[in-house]
Design goal:
350 residues, mainly alpha, two-stranded antiparallel sheet, 13 helices
Length: 350
């Protein structure tokens, strides 16, 4: 039996991030509108009018503010690898922010992503062993370790960015993934307090953002938010695998099933058509659901339910005692978003 080791810092960090987001996101919306930093509609996008695209700024600031608050409250865990997480994710955020403003070349962005992932690899976040059926855990060559780690971090970062095409989808999947990976990290023996804390804070930041992101969205997270969150999820999953000694190291494949399936099918489809996998199109999984006649909300609901099921299965496999807590987190998050959206709607009517 596992013992779920959640500390006050995990809960406090998530709450601070969520509350900060409720106040900060409207400020970012106002700033984006005044500066003309809007996502313009086109034939590939499904929104019909310009919408602020700097939601990632609010998500990043909420996350950083939460860490500073925990330092003041003396809850901050000074552990190894945390500096790599914060540095790498912040660099990825800056890359996305520049792209949101200036629209960088996709191949250039990928090169920078590899560079950022390399920095984090050198700071200790790396895949050093793989579980091979009938053989067990096997140490791998440093070159293979580098290729797998960099490929995973850059791949998942972009995969999360790929699913940010329908209001509320990416934010919901990120929140569910954070809940799953945060809980299984807390259930490890010994528990990984750093991964749990980062996951919970990111979930809190994302919940605050989601209040304004569900259809009809008032703001998009943009590349800055998607790359920031995608990087953290990929790095946290690597840190989890570093502590596993059996096949459970592959549990993150379930937690991140939605973005992994989307980027896999999208890349293969483009390559088979003779196109570059870096060229954007309107044939992602969420687009397919919309083409079937589903509304944005229903398309998001289908993928969110699938993400919840794979997240639940992941927690059951990794640490069965955490499954009920995962469902509690999903329910509480849903209630919080619904209550806040209703409050914003009532406020707007007045």
């Amino acid at each position: 039996m596992t013992i779920l080791q959640l500390s006050e810092a995990h809960i406090i960090g998530a709450v601070i991030a969520f509350i900060t987001g409720l106040f900060l996101v409207p400020m970012v919306i106002s700033f984006s509108e005044k500066q003309g930093l809007l996502d313009e509609p086109n034939e590939r996008k499904i929104h019909s009018h310009p919408i602020p695209r700097l939601g990632g700024v609010a998500i990043w600031i909420c996350t950083i503010i939460s860490f500073f608050a925990l330092i003041i409250l003396s809850y901050y865990p000074y552990r190894s690898l945390l500096s790599g997480l914060l540095l790498g994710s912040s660099l990825m955020f800056l890359l996305g922010l520049v792209d949101d403003i200036y629209a960088l070349n996709a191949k250039f962005k990928f090169v920078i992503q590899i560079s950022i992932a390399t920095i984090v690899y050198c700071l200790g976040v790396k895949i050093t062993a793989l579980y091979i059926p009938f053989i067990g855990m096997t140490q791998i060559h440093p070159i293979l370790s580098y290729i797998l780690t960099i490929g995973w971090i850059a791949g998942i970062s972009n995969a999360v960015n790929f699913i940010d095409g329908v209001d509320g989808l990416a934010g919901s999947v990120i929140t569910i993934s954070c809940a799953a990976i945060g809980l299984i990290s807390a259930a490890l023996i010994p528990s990984d307090s750093v991964s749990t804390l980062v996951a919970f804070i990111l979930a809190g930041s994302m919940l605050g953002f989601l209040t304004y992101n569900f259809h009809p969205a008032k703001i998009f997270m943009g590349d800055s938010g998607a790359l920031f969150a995608g990087f953290l999820l990929s790095a946290l999953s690597v840190m989890y695998s570093m502590k596993c000694s059996d096949w459970k190291m592959y549990v993150p494949l379930l937690i991140l099933a939605v973005p992994i399936m989307d980027i896999t099918f999208s890349s293969l489809r483009r390559i088979m058509k003779g196109k570059s996998p870096f060229v954007a199109d309107s044939e992602h999984i969420h687009h397919k659901l919309l083409h079937l006649g589903l509304s944005q909300n229903k398309a998001v609901l289908v993928l969110v339910i699938f993400s919840i099921l794979t997240g639940w299965l992941a927690t059951y496999i990794a640490a069965s005692d955490t499954t009920k807590y995962f469902l509690y987190a999903v329910i509480i998050s849903t209630v919080m978003i619904i209550l806040n959206r209703h409050a914003k709607f009532d406020e707007g009517n007045k």
